[in-house]
Structures are given as C-alpha cells and as structure tokens.
Design a protein that fits this description.
- The protein is an alpha/beta fold and 351 residues long.
- It folds into 2 domains: 249 residues, Aspartate Aminotransferase, domain 2 (3-Layer(aba) Sandwich); 91 residues, Aspartate Aminotransferase, domain 1.
- 35% of the residues lie in helices and 15% in strands.
- The protein has 12 helices and 11 strands.
- It has a 7-stranded mixed β-sheet, sandwiched between helices. Strands 8-9-11-10 form a 4-stranded antiparallel β-sheet, covered by helices on one side.
- α5 links the parallel β2 and β3.
- α4 packs across α5.
- It starts with 6 loop residues before the first helix and ends with a helix.
- The protein binds pyridoxal-5'-phosphate.
- Pyridoxal-5'-phosphate binds next to α4.
C-alpha cells in the first residue's frame, strides 16, 4: 500500500524540535548498573522495593508484550491508562486551534474531551444506523488539517466491531493517522489490527489492561505503532509515567495468560446468558450485537428503567443522550452471581 504517508508533515512544529527530558540514569544504559552507586536522583537510599524511580522505558513490561503480540519493543509505548496515550497523540500531532480530528459518535467520550482540552476541533461523523463508519462522509470531512481519525472497534457503547473493509479503506486513503481503540478486542472473535502494523505506517492501535486483563486499578494503557510514531510520543511523555507498582503488577499478570483466558471465556459465556435473559424482558425492544464485555439494549424508557435499577442497588450506564442511542442502556457483564441479580431485577421492574 502507498498513500504518500509522511510522519514529518503530521508532527507539531514545537514537538519536532524537542529533546526528551533526560534523567541522569538514561545516560548510563550501557553500564552494568547492578555494580553502580546511584547518587544522582535525590532518592532515599534505603531499599524498600520502591525507593528508586521506575524504569522510564518500562522495558520489562514491553518485553512481555512484544513477545505476546509479536511486535518489536520499539513499536510499543505505555501510558498511565489509554487516556494518557490518547492525550499524548493529541499533543504530538495536533496544533491547537488549527488542526482537527474526526470521531464517529456514538463512541467513547474521551476523544472529544481530549480534543476540547487540547483546543482541537472534533469533527463528528455519525455512524450508520447499524453503527458502521460512513466512509464517504468521513472522507468529505477530511481537510489538510485533519490529523487523526478515531475508530473504536469494538465500539463503546454500541459493542460492535467496524467492518475490515471500512478500516482498510481509511488506512489506505487517509493521509493522517488512523487510531484504532481496541480496548475490547479480547472479547471479540476478530483479530487485532496489530498484525497489520508493518503494512500501514499511519496505523496506531491502543489497548488497555483495564478491561479483559482485569487491571483497571493500575492504569496501564498501551499504544502499538511504527517506531517513527513511538519515538515522537516518547519525546513528550512524562519520564516516569508508569509507576513501579503498576509495571511489576502488569508483568505478573501478563504472564498469567491461562487465568486471563479463563476469565474472558467466562465473561463471554455470561454475556450470552445475559443476552438470552434480556430477550425475555418485556420492555427490552432491541438487543444490539456485541463483541465486548457489555450489552447495549433499547428499552421503552431508559431514564425510568435506569432509576428503577438504581433503586434496587444496581448501577448501569444510561446512554439515552448519545447520538443514535435514544432509550438505550449499557450493561456491563459481571460475575455469574451479579448477572443473576441483574436479571431478577430487570424482570421484577417490568411487572
Ligand atoms: C475503558 C476504555 C478504555 C480504557 O481506558 P484506560 O484509560 O486504559 O482505562 C479505552 N477506550 C475505550 C473505548 C474504553 O471503553
């Protein structure tokens, strides 16, 4: 594929000329650090496991991820949650008040929040009624200052994946960056776009340990991209953006693939049971197809049903104000016990 992609045209001018913050320790990479005495960073010298600053490059986490995903370590950038990774993308590529991005509502709210925060215009191109990208309208919205298109697939809050043809078309024809947010990819039968990384220089994939990997509390987001892109992001990221506890916990968990797979299988099985039960709820008008760990449903009156569930001590997400989502509720798949209680409550409020 050739779409005349040139990363240098996309980078913000001030970022192009920036040097990353260099800690004293970065300069001693080639030494046998085990033998050295570190009196450079004003740390407390008494060992307690976390008295030293964490590895700014998170080499151990990246090594495990690189092996599992069959990419190079230099194609990975880690952040304090994907939210930080997404913010770095804005700050690296979007000139405030000049550049724009394209998002496809109904979708994840953070793209719009980050666009606002960074004073970048967010051009919204609605998905179709069955929640697929409208390729022609997207291409019409693109101009010379469009730096990124955000594709959330599987999409939050709708649950479906975008067609391979649509994604491939954008990768081949859009000269900016195509960011595919794969926060829910582990619940889908579809392959990750990571496998296409070497094919498309404008492809950026974000994933997270917050959902399928069960580590929302440690805040670890992952960006897979060409080394040209990760080099730029590395230049601007806060040096110690992923703390030592999170790095250690991530490695531990990533090496536990069997446990993770078993949990994902259980969540998917529970999702299917929940869908079955939802089809028997009188006021549920539509259950949208899902490849994620949640189900979007259309009901008779979302505000009413939401309030009734709260009164029964169950908190779900009311999406009725989102584009194309009138009277919809988003239900996260819980444990078997939680889902049973949810189903009992859903049926009870319908009678
Ligand atoms: C939950 C979610 C994330 C995860 O964000 P983190 O900051 O990594 O917890 C990213 N994208 C989407 C679409 C999500 O729903």
């Amino acid at each position: 594929m050739e779409n005349n992609f040139d990363i240098n045209i996309l980078i913000r001018e001030n970022v192009k000329n920036m040097k990353p913050y260099s800690s004293a320790r970065d300069e001693f990479e080639d030494f046998d650090t085990a033998e050295m005495i570190f009196l450079d960073a004003n740390e407390n010298p008494f060992e307690n496991g976390v008295n030293r600053y964490p590895d700014p490059q998170q080499a151990n986490v990246k090594e495990v991820l690189a092996k599992q995903k069959v990419v190079k370590s230099n194609q990975i950038l880690l952040g304090n949650g994907s939210d930080e990774v997404l913010d770095l993308l804005f700050r690296a590529f979007c000139e405030p008040k000049i550049d724009n991005i394209i998002t496809l509502p109904p979708t994840y709210g953070m793209y719009g929040v980050l666009a606002n925060l960074n004073a970048v215009e967010n051009r919204e191109v609605l998905l179709t009624e069955d929640f697929q990208p409208e390729i022609e309208k997207i291409m019409e919205a693109v101009d010379a200052n469009t730096k990124m298109i955000f594709l959330c697939s599987p999409n939050n809050p709708t649950g479906n994946s975008f067609s391979d043809e649509s994604v491939a078309y954008l990768l081949q024809n859009f000269k900016g960056l195509v960011v595919i947010d794969e926060a829910y990819i582990d619940f889908s039968k579809k392959d990750s776009w990571i496998n296409e990384l070497d094919e498309y220089p404008n492809l950026i994939i974000t994933q997270t340990l917050s959902k399928a990997y069960g580590l929302a509390g440690i805040r670890l987001g992952i960006c897979y991209a060409s080394s040209a892109v990760t080099t730029i992001l590395n230049r601007i990221k806060p040096p110690y953006n992923v703390n030592e506890l999170s790095q250690n916990r991530a490695v531990e968990r990533l090496e536990d693939q069997q446990v993770i797979s078993a949990e994902i299988e259980s969540i998917i099985a529970q999702r299917e049971l929940l869908i079955e039960a939802l089809s028997e709820v009188s006021y549920v008008e539509k259950i949208y197809p899902t490849e994620a760990n949640f189900v979007l449903v259309k009901v008779d009156d979302a505000n009413k049903r939401y309030a009734e569930l709260i009164a029964k001590g169950i908190v779900i997400r009311n999406r009725t104000t989102q584009a194309l989502c009138e009277n919809t509720l988003r239900l996260t798949v819980g444990t078997e016990e939680e889902n049973k209680k949810l189903i009992v409550a859903l049926k009870a409020i319908g009678t």
